[in-house]
Fold each of these.
Amino acid sequence: MSVELWSDDRLNRKQEGQWLVQFLTSKYAILEAEHSKNYVLNVNAEWGFGKTYFINNLAEELKEKKHVVVCFDAWKNDFSENALLSFIAEINEELTNQGLLSATDGKLAGIARSMKNAALPLLGGFFTKQLFGMSLQGVEALLEDEQESEGASVKGAEQPGLSKDITTVASSISTKAAELALKEYQTTKNAIGHFRENLRLLVEGLEGSASFKAPLFILIDELDRCKPSYSIQLLETIKHLFNVEGVYFIVATASEQLSHSINAVYGEKFESKRYLNRFFDQEYSLKSPDKEKYCNFIWSKYLPNETVFVPVFQADNKSEDIINIGILSKVAEYMRAGLRDIEQAVKLLYAIQLTQEKTDYLFSLPLFYIIVLKIRHPEIYPYFKNKWGRISSIKHTVVNLLSFNKITLI
């Protein structure tokens, strides 16, 4: 295949990914004794722990084993006001991209096309939302049409019976809107049933196919970064629309952050973790990455020939680069910085190096500390910056840094 699996794996995720693939495929193979073959797994890790890298490579592992895999980036799609709309559209596109609609197995291709057609009513215009979300000019035009059809003749604000006419028109429009809403609800309900049945048939087709294997995997990333309302909609969609045997969901989240998002909608006292347990059958937490190995990788990428950052101490048989990488990893560990935080810090160091005179040197420990502080705790940084500005001696700065925060880095 064109994509090399687990290339640049600096967090030892390959072993975890391959183990998880083995677990999921084996689980499906022996599930006859259980009540259902549908499954939702939450892959939990903090922000910056490499969830997206893990999910992308996991998808490729599954595709290599002939599974149909739908990848959905929730954050890229949360501009949509309707989670179901964007989700169904993405599934249709993935089925096309992976060749199901043109499969050599004519029966399987027919089922895939039937499922796509079954989704069309769900992708139609949501009339009720459009009606109440239209512009003022649109409402006025609708009023005028309604008045003409009812024989109303409104020519001026002084005309007798104006208030009565407007009330009648508004009532008529509301009645028609309610009728259309009920009709749309029934249409959507029928379409959902039809879609689920075709999804079930698709999984059955995969089980009997020579080109593909069951289960069907749907991988969702970046859910915790979405608007809270969109995250909840998407979870509800998974629960109610895709609760079909042979469909496996893998949802990558920072579970703690997702809980906070749900509380933002339902209130601080809402038991968000119990709410999430309704959707997830199990949770798998990615191992915490080795920050020093990652610091070494990202330092080598941006600062391979660094010369301006000087450690505040020396160590036998260790280069300045190795010492600086160790200092950065210790600062990151103490600050609980994620991998994205570390990368941002190194990019800032790279910018400093580009603009720094080669004859001017900067002590790495205080500089690394204040950069990571700025990234991790921007609310504290201004106070620290002011304190920094009043201290002229680098020696005094280091002493104050260490004593003020009670941190031992050396």
Amino acid sequence: MGVGETAELTPTLIRAARALLGFDQGQLAEKVGISRKTIALIETMKESPVDPRRRAILEKLRNAMETDLHVEFVFASTETGEGVRLRRPAPAKAETN
């Protein structure tokens, strides 16, 4: 990727993350605030999302999965393929008095 470019979720990454979490489309939709039908459409899209509305939905989905569900996406590069894994949430800080 070049400077300023961000990697976009692919249908394969979304399905893999869902499987890793053990979610069906409806459960993922509920967790991230997107309709199940939208998840289904995104998971079957064939071409790169150039529509600004589709990009916004993918960004919302990515943010929710990374932040709230602790999914880490590995995007394809010249050295590796794409994949997903779970991050361990940061340990809670102890309160000091």
Amino acid sequence: MSIATSPSTLPPSLWAATAPAAPPTPALAGSRRADVLIVGAGFTGLSAALHLAEAGTKVCVLEAHEPGWGASGRNGGQVNPTLKQDPDELVRTYGAARAEPLIDAVSRSADLVFELIERHGIDCQPVRKGWLQVAYSPQHIAAMHARAEQWARRGVATQMLDRADVAARLGTEAFAGGWLDGRAGGIQPLAYTRGLVRAAQAAGASVHGGSAVTALERRGTQWHAATASGASVVADQVLIATNGYTGGLWPGLSRTVLAANSFIVATAPLQGAAAHAILPGGETASTSQRLLLYFRKDAQGRLLMGGRGHFADPAGPADFAHLERSLELLFPQLGPLEYEYRWAGRIAVTRDFMPHVHTPAPGLTIALGYNGRGIALATSMGRHVAARLLQPGADFPYPVTPLQPIPLHGLQRFYIAAGVAWYSLLDRFS
């Protein structure tokens, strides 16, 4: 397996190997005029482009590599409509008047993903059988069942699960219990990303890969963006949607998030009765640990497991050994496993574990920071940001906050390493 890749090449992964061919997204040439310029062709940018274009807005999307090159094409494919914070915690933090619209937007985020897939005929192997969050320790079950009850009070189909329930659904007796969120599901994320590109293009948006924006400045009432090739765009509004791959385009922005690596492995397609007993209902799953593990099957029966890795990008198979050990400990009945794919991508982690929306200058919106739940949340964010750009005074469910760089952000490599070590210790003894 080769890990190294040039910056312009889609990194190798299960998704890159199995997605439908990418639609043409030629590099921007010459000068372009747009109502809205979007920087970043991931879930946020493409969802915003689609909804803006459907409303008749002239949209130009610029991506440094190709759509889905970042986390949108490399994640685990789980569509989870939740935040790190439980609903009642959000109410305590923001008050009911502000929190309940946010909770509703988050709750409906998976609906939006699957509606877009159906409406636009996106070939991305969607399965909507729910998400299992499970715990190793009995002492964590009460909190998980309280979480399920909070969502149930808001009309969500949830189930509280004991040890036997979880064992039957997962095919392992390693867990003490958990809960099922019926809103959730799984998709082929790179295929979904490419489907959003096609849908946005069909609605009239222009999408350009290989078009890194190197300069952005406001002149009078308009924004001027220049790309590395010398092409340019003039626009009334700009949306920056670069998430875990945010660079220095806007001063201070990259210092507001930690770009943490998430590593994933995928087995060869599993066969036999033991394989069929693992996640037989088609759910996705993750643990409740601070350093969580997430796992699911794909459409061909491969078993995927993901989790945090070290700060540096992986250099070879040895960097994924912790995930392979975890998978084999959970499912010893499978015997020795063959791994077909190993890959990684960066997610944007915020200090408060909330998605961040900023408007640091007139006509400029920034949206990023999904903390590992980007398929549902970023798709939803794109639609809500589009609505806000179309009607600036309309209700907007997410908090809009000033840029707040993380102190000593240059030490993020050490922040992440220390956090991984500390959370690993807490997980071991709690």
Amino acid sequence: MAKPKNPATAQADADANAYVRGEMQINEQASTFKLFMSLAKWGSLAVAVSLVFLTVWFRPGGNLVAAFVSAAVLAVVGFVALKPRPTQAH
């Protein structure tokens, strides 16, 4: 069991004790959520494009041009599908 006054974890213990549930500003929470969702969305598209490119290129009988074209098509379709839509006023 860890010592209660361990100097190696003193800063972490102080941060944990300073945390008060429900004190985060709503705009900070909303912007953090939007950032996470955006990174997850565009990161997933980047992984999918990379996988298509590598799969088509390295499959038996595959070539670089077909891989590039397939990845480019997926990237364009993914960008159109994932781009932010304008918000409508209610």
